[in-house]
Design goal:
single chain; 15 helices; 15 strands; alpha/beta; seven-stranded parallel sheet
């Protein structure tokens, strides 16, 4: 759930939750509940604006598929998750736990992938701050207090002013937001106890929205009944917004993460990188990190990997979009902004180990070493590797507000192997564009399901969440599915098939993300439509392969 867009604006007074402020600030949500697999359904047959995945599999029924390697650059992955067994990549040239570099690539025991946030002793740099906060600290000694650019350093000074402006905005926003989040947490912690007492649960007990309906609140003479009603009201709203699988524990954990992120912007721990990883993120190198890809923060990456390729038809968990993939796990995204150095190295690592599609569900506002990332993007293009990137969750127009990474390279060229994905909901009505999604008629390529998407989570759990972070892997799964059956297609041809599959939804007026302004859906992306797996495969089947010889 996107707490930064809803709960941070909610006001709490004692045990009463005033939700009117949050609800008037954002456009309405879709009017009906969607099934957990709605993102795979078909609009005409099922009534949900999914990707028509069942129809796609009917189209290729009886055809042989080829295994496709996909990489996720993310927060890691639960390698023991039941739905990922046999799906996570195993490096055939490495012997687990022998402390040797079997494939001589500079990464010791990279059995399932690599952790570019790792350090000696199995440590990991989990908690980071925003890039503009890090850059402000780095540049402050040189530029703070200057009223004009030093002679010959006009470009550097201009960059400093940009960093400072974004830093000041971020810190001010986090400071204001933190107060609301802490008030929200106070409400949740107090009412959490009321609910558990009413349900006769122990201190560690968990409850869902369905459990709240079991509480008897008919006896209005019962002491504390009004307080209990208010607690149920607040929790019903919050749990209902997050999905059927949401629990009180998950809600509190997620809110704690948002509080931690704001605190990291306000009072950053700037020595984490040096103390844990040991490298200098502003000096290029590649042989750092460790081979441990699973840490307690791997929930996001596990969900992303599951949407791409969780085992299909096993009667457990979810069915991934692609049915014959192996996923290379690259851990490079902390709680906070990623480092350009890690992203560039992650792309190089994925390409060098055979990935044909790379999912990138992350982003930020400053890119101090974009040249490194651009080099990696060009390297991927030269090796026919498609990059699929989440556009972001700030309901901003990325034609006007630049997000990183992107396909606009510093040399003035545009990367043809780069897909930028927005998030959609399930109803073909005014709510079709997800309220949080970034958008851009020039910079976002296509939309894909991203509201209330259910995937796997850590420790055999499941999670329903919102985000372009989950729209991107759905598209990555479609790209992999195309390459399974049409392996001779180039990265740019796969991109073309995906974009052509998104029929422009002309004339449909939708709420512009983050507002109550109605706009034509076609103005929110290049294609003006939502990706469709069936049509993408149909289009791909008619293409003559242009993939370079490997």
């Amino acid at each position: 759930m996107n707490y930064k867009k809803i709960l941070s604006t909610a006001l709490f007074c004692g045990a009463f939750l005033h939700l009117a402020t949050a609800q008037t600030a954002m456009p309405p949500m879709p009017s009906s509940d969607a099934p957990k697999n709605w993102h795979q359904l078909d609009l005409d047959k099922d009534g949900f604006y999914g990707i028509s995945l069942n129809q796609a599999y009917e189209l290729v029924k009886g055809k042989k598929s080829k295994t496709v390697l996909v990489a996720t650059i993310d927060s890691g992955c639960d390698t023991l998750q039941k739905d990922m067994q046999g799906i996570i990549w195993v490096n055939p040239k490495e012997t687990p736990n022998n402390a040797k570099d079997g494939d001589r690539d500079g990464y010791v025991n990279d059995v399932h992938g690599w952790n570019f946030l790792g350090g000696p002793g199995g440590k990991c740099d989990v908690n980071e701050t925003s890039e503009e906060v890090r850059e402000y600290d780095r540049l402050k000694p040189k530029y703070a207090g200057l009223a004009q650019a030093p002679a010959g350093d006009e470009k550097g000074y201009s960059y400093w002013l940009n960093v400072k402006a974004k830093h000041d905005t971020t810190v001010a926003h986090s400071t204001a937001e933190l107060q609301g989040l802490q008030q929200t947490m106070g409400f949740l912690m107090i009412t959490n106890g009321y609910i558990k007492k009413a349900l006769k649960l122990g201190p560690q007990g968990t409850f869902t929205a369905k459990d709240l309906a079991k509480i008897d609140i008919k006896d209005t003479t019962k002491p504390g009944i009004d307080t209990l009603k208010n607690a149920i009201f607040g929790w019903n709203y919050i749990l209902g917004a997050e999905g059927d699988d949401a629990t009180n524990v998950k809600v509190i954990d997620d809110l704690n993460e948002s509080i931690e992120k704001d605190n990291n912007d306000i009072s950053p721990e700037l020595a984490n990188r040096k103390n844990i990883v040991g490298d200098d993120p502003n000096v290029w190198s590649s042989n750092y990190g460790n081979n441990l890809v699973e840490f307690p923060d791997a929930s996001h990456g596990t969900g992303v990997a599951g949407l791409i390729g969780a085992k299909r038809g096993n009667g457990y968990g979810i069915d991934g979009v692609a049915d014959n993939v192996r996923i290379i796990i690259i851990k490079a995204v902390p709680k906070g902004d990623e480092y350009d150095k890690d992203i560039a190295n992650g792309i190089f690592f994925a390409v060098n180990h055979g990935a044909k599609v790379i999912n990138m569900s992350f982003g930020k506002k400053i890119s101090p070493h974009k040249n490194w990332v651009d080099s990696a993007v060009r390297y991927a293009a030269a090796h026919d590797v498609l990059l699929v990137h989440a556009s972001g969750n700030d309901n901003e127009n990325t034609d006007e507000v630049i997000q990183y990474p992107n396909n606009r390279l510093l040399d003035g060229t545009t990367a043809g192997n780069f897909l930028e994905i927005g998030a959609s909901a399930w109803k073909k009505d005014t709510t079709l564009a997800a309220y949080f999604s970034n958008y851009g008629q020039k910079t976002v390529d296509v939309f894909a399901p991203g509201l209330h998407v259910t995937s796997i989570d850590l420790n055999a759990e499941f999670n329903t969440a919102d985000g372009t972070s989950f729209s991107a892997p759905i598209v990555t799964g479609i790209a992999a599915l195309i390459l399974e059956y049409y392996p001779k297609l180039s990265a740019e041809q796969v991109k073309e098939a995906i974009m052509e599959s998104a029929t422009p939804i002309k004339g449909l007026m939708v709420y512009k993300p983050g507002t109550r302004d109605l706009v034509d859906f076609t103005t929110l992306s290049k294609t003006g439509g939502i990706v469709n797996a069936y049509r993408a495969l149909e289009i791909a089947s008619k293409m003559k392969g242009e993939r370079k010889k490997e």
